[in-house]
Amino acid sequence: MKKKKSKTPNAPPFAVEEESSDAALCEFYTHSLCPYAHRVSLALAFKRVPHARKHVDVSNKPRWFLQVNPRGLVPVIRTREREVLNESIDLCYWLDASFVGENHPPLMPSDNDERNRALRLVKAADGGFIAAGLSFIGGGWGFTEGDPGDARRATLAAEVAKIEDQMDDWDTFLCGVDPSVADVVLWPFVERFELAMREFNDTELAEMGGKKFSRWMRHMKKLPEVRRLAPDEAKLLKSWRRTMRLDYFDYETADMDDP
């Protein structure tokens, strides 16, 4: 998959935040509430890539960030060569291809069948499970309280079943016994859908599938990277209740902790 890139000669010089080390291999521009940025946070964590983390208030974009990325969107990675890369899935693939070796565990399975499965799950994610989940919680990126109706419930259940159909009975994660790019791409939305469905729709996401899907959710929640990068549920709910939207990313209720 081709990555999108641009040069930013007028961007601020490469900098490492105090919380990061001088060994940072790239700059990562993010927002704590954004599920797409959360994908890249997970990829960086699983790949063990030292990086400088820059938080961006997307509701009030600072001029310096628009110099880095004129589109004004996160996530963004800026390399030491001052290349600016964006689009969350492309960034996950770029990280996996750029940082290899025993210090950087792969996100793409080595087994051909599992690798092809990961590619299929990633390709289908945005238009399949994620679209069905957004529709379930309210349609578009907004929230609607109450029962979403049989049709939306059936659509989401069908997408969960498609994910389960890809999994083997012995799989811990979506594509085998280790987390892969498929887990990284889907998990931020699973995490948010679970919370939103419980809060607004009185529904448990884990109960919409069979044993394999609920088992996968349990194993993901045990991973230290997932636990460390999980958004604060109380703050997330406060933001959602204030805006009734999943895609409004400010720092009035969110904070700039590790996620």
From TrEMBL:
PROSITE patterns: GST_CTER (PS50405), GST_NTER (PS50404). Signal peptide: none annotated. It comes from the Eukaryota. SUPFAM superfamilies: GST C-terminal domain-like, Thioredoxin-like. Gene3D superfamilies: 1.20.1050.10, Glutaredoxin (3.40.30.10). GO terms for cellular component: cytoplasm. Pfam families: GST_C_2, GST_N_2. Residues 111-246 form the GST C-terminal domain. InterPro entries: Glutathione-S-Trfase_C-like, Glutathione-S-Trfase_C_sf, Glutathione_S-Trfase, Glutathione_S-Trfase_N, GST_Omega/HSP26, Thioredoxin-like_sf. Residues 24-103 form the GST N-terminal domain. This is Predicted protein.
